[in-house]
Design brief:
flat; two-stranded antiparallel ribbon; 1 helix; alpha+beta; two-stranded antiparallel sheet; 17% strand
């Protein structure tokens, strides 16, 4: 999105015959293409398919344009990614992160 470019679809040489590609506005990107702003937030779906059967999908949306007259306030916020083998492990990890941030001012 930042570069205004739709990347080509990786590892695909031709569209699958199991999809009716004429029935909608969906197309396989066989080469990169310009993605110009159109007055609406641009959105993209990104899928990842792991070798072991793990699938992930995320929908990204373009951030609103910043007003250059307003100070940015420093670095942009970023998510802290946590993982755990199960729900309790995830909660424990979140608790350790909270404790660390509370005892180390300026970490956030």
């Amino acid at each position: 999105m930042r570069h205004g470019l739709l990347p080509r679809t990786l590892h695909v040489d031709e569209p699958t015959p199991h999809v009716d590609w004429t029935a909608g506005a969906v197309q396989l990107l066989t080469e990169a293409r310009e993605w110009a702003p159109n007055g609406h937030p641009r959105r993209a779906g990104v899928s990842g398919f792991g070798m072991s059967g793990t699938n992930a999908h995320v929908v990204l949306e373009e951030a609103p344009a910043l007003d250059p007259r307003e100070p940015s306030g420093g670095a942009a916020p970023a998510p802290w990614l946590l993982s755990g083998h199960n729900e309790q492990a995830l909660r424990d990890q979140a608790g350790r992160l909270r404790e660390y941030v509370e005892t180390h001012p300026g970490t956030e």
